[in-house]
């Protein structure tokens, strides 16, 4: 399978990392900064000096540049034949219709990945031009399965998916950081606090999953009447922590819709 990747930043480097595990894949990669990607050169990873070469050598070309750089990339390939060539855009906020308008290509997929897939555990959403054949869609889903779960969703749900799934790791890091700093505030060392918080988050998810518990069941299991936990939950409610998080995610969603 010949796969192209244009733009080797946070997402492009994750794609290179995950796809290069499969030795049946031949990768053709390009970035404006050639020095930055020299380190990837390998038997199965070819560094190209032009965008058009990536598009012509690969069957499936991922375009993982920032949305405002898409024009520069599509300018270089819009006059090339799209026979047996497919573009897979990772850009936030750019619809299939936008991508068609920018590139003039019909063989277009839109995906929404996450940096979490560096661990192979992320979820990638996919949408595509319905005129593309089932075999090709199945090939692309198979390539994406190297990143974790693949979820086909309606395009109108991409904005919500983007914020929860792809911005999500930053929000989770922020929340974990607030627990970490809480630990330091009440007398734990940074390292002890981080270890305890990481185990609490991972262990909670594992326990909920294994016992098929509802979130509220776990909350009440831990809250002794008149005790410590319910006092903390009461303070969180008074400070509207949940409402603040919901508002922040809603604002990020609205911002994504405007991209
Ligand atoms: N970061 C994330 O977690 C997620 C990002 N996305 C989407 O994925 C895309 C990439 O994001 P991200 O990886 O964070 O971005 P980065 O800026 O980290 O990576 C983009 C890379 O492309 C390079 N580049 C810029 N212009 C061109 C060009 N004309 N041709 C080739 N390469 C070019 C950039 O170089 P230079 O830095 O010199 O400009 C950079 O190395 C975006 O559209 C974003 O919306 C989607 C989901 C999650
Ligand atoms: O912040 C952004 O714009 C992109 C989209 C999802 C994650 N990063």
Which helices and strands appear, and what pairs or packs with what?
Layout: E1 2-6, H1 10-19, E2 26-30, H2 34-37, E3 45-47, H3 51-57, E4 60-63, H4 70-77, E5 86-89, H5 96-103, E6 108-112, E7 122-128, H6 134-144, E8 148-152, H7 158-185, H8 190-211, H9 215-222, H10 228-238, H11 241-258
Parallel strand pairs: 1-2, 1-4, 2-3, 4-5, 5-6, 7-8
Antiparallel strand pairs: 6-7
Helix pairs in contact: 7-8, 7-11
The chain binds NADPH dihydro-nicotinamide-adenine-dinucleotide phosphate (NDP) and (2S)-3,4-dihydro-2H-pyrrole-2-carboxylic acid (A1CAB).
Residues 92, 162, 166-167 line the site of (2S)-3,4-dihydro-2H-pyrrole-2-carboxylic acid (A1CAB).
Short description:
Catalyzes the reduction of 1-pyrroline-5-carboxylate (PCA) to L-proline. The chain has 259 residues and is of the alpha/beta class. Helix content is 52%, strand content 15%.
Overview of the structural elements:
Helix 7 (158-185) packs across helix 8 (190-211) and helix 7 packs antiparallel against helix 11 (241-258). The protein contains eleven helices and eight strands. The model has no long low-confidence stretch (mean pLDDT 97). Strands 3-2-1-4-5-6-7-8 form an eight-stranded mixed sheet, sandwiched between helices. The chain has two domains: 2-153, NAD(P)-binding Rossmann-like Domain (Rossmann fold, 3-Layer(aba) Sandwich); 161-258, ProC C-terminal domain-like (ProC C-terminal domain-like fold, Orthogonal Bundle). The protein has helices at residues 10-19, 34-37, 51-57, 70-77, 96-103, 134-144, 158-185, 190-211, 215-222, 228-238, 241-258, and strands at 2-6, 26-30, 45-47, 60-63, 86-89, 108-112, 122-128, 148-152. Helix 5 (96-103) links the parallel strand 5 (86-89) and strand 6. Bound molecules: NADPH dihydro-nicotinamide-adenine-dinucleotide phosphate and (2S)-3,4-dihydro-2H-pyrrole-2-carboxylic acid. (2S)-3,4-dihydro-2H-pyrrole-2-carboxylic acid (A1CAB) binds at residues 92, 162, 166-167. One of its GO terms (cellular component) is cytoplasm. Catalyzes the reduction of 1-pyrroline-5-carboxylate (PCA) to L-proline. GO terms for molecular function: pyrroline-5-carboxylate reductase activity.
């Amino acid at each position: 399978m010949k796969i192209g990747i244009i733009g080797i930043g946070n997402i492009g480097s994750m794609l290179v990392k995950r796809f290069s595990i499969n030795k049946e894949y031949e990768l053709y990669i390009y970035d404006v900064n050639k020095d930055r990607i020299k380190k990837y050169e390998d038997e199965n990873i070819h560094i190209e000096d032009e965008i058009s070469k990536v598009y012509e050598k690969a069957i499936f070309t991922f375009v993982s540049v920032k949305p405002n750089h898409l024009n520069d990339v599509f300018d270089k390939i819009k006059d090339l034949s799209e026979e047996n060539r497919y573009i897979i855009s990772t850009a936030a906020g750019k619809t299939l219709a936008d991508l068609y308008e920018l590139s003039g290509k019909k063989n277009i997929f839109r995906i929404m990945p996450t940096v979490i897939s560096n661990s192979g555990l992320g979820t990638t959403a996919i949408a595509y031009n319905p005129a593309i054949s089932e075999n090709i869609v199945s090939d692309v889903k198979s390539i994406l399965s190297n990143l974790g779960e693949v979820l086909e969703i309606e395009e109108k749900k991409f904005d919500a998916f983007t914020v929860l799934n792809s911005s999500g790791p930053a929000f989770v890091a922020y929340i974990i950081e607030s627990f970490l700093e809480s630990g330091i505030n009440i007398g734990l060392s940074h390292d002890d606090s981080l270890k305890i918080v990481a185990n609490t988050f991972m262990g909670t998810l594992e326990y909920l999953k294994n016992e098929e518990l509802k979130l509220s069941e776990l909350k009440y299991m831990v809250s002794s009447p008149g005790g410590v936990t319910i006092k903390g939950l009461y303070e969180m409610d008074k400070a509207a922590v949940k409402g603040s998080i919901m508002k922040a995610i809603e604002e990020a969603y609205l911002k994504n819709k405007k991209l």
